[in-house]
Amino acid sequence: MGRSARPVALSALEWLGDAVDYQLVHVTANPEEDAIETPDAPTAERWQEAYRRIGVIAGLIAESVGGYVLDLDGLLVDPADLA
Among the four residues 7, 17, 23, 48, which has the most C-beta atoms within 10 Å? Predict the structure, then answer.
């Protein structure tokens, strides 16, 4: 894994060049699930739980070391929305 692309939302920060970034991503156990556009109820429930956990982890990292949380589109996320 290499350095990630720097999101536009953070491009004006002078200290960004020395910053560490983390990417928390939901990877399905079954690669065929990645192709599903509209999951059935049990699959949707599993995915929702995974995304909730990712939000909690992102919130804990931001709380512990500081920084910003961005969504997949590179937009800032309110830390209050992560729990």
Answer: 7
Six-digit token string for 43: 């699959």
Is there a contact between 37 and 20 (Cβ–Cβ < 8 Å)? Answer: no
Q: Kindly report, residue by residue over 50-81, the tens digit of the pLDDT.
A: 889 999 999 999 889 888 888 878 788 888 88
Amino acid at 57: I
Residue 59 gets the label, from left (phi > 0), alpha (psi -120 to 50) or beta, of alpha
Chain centre distance of CA 23:
6
Distance of alpha carbon 31 from alpha carbon 79, whole angstroms: 30
How far apart (Å, rounded) are the C-alpha atoms in residues 68 and 59?
9
On the CB side of 26, how many CA atoms lie within 13 Å of its CA? 17
What is the rounded distance in angstroms from the CA atom of residue 75 to the CA atom of residue 6? 12
Q: Which amino acid, 45?
A: E
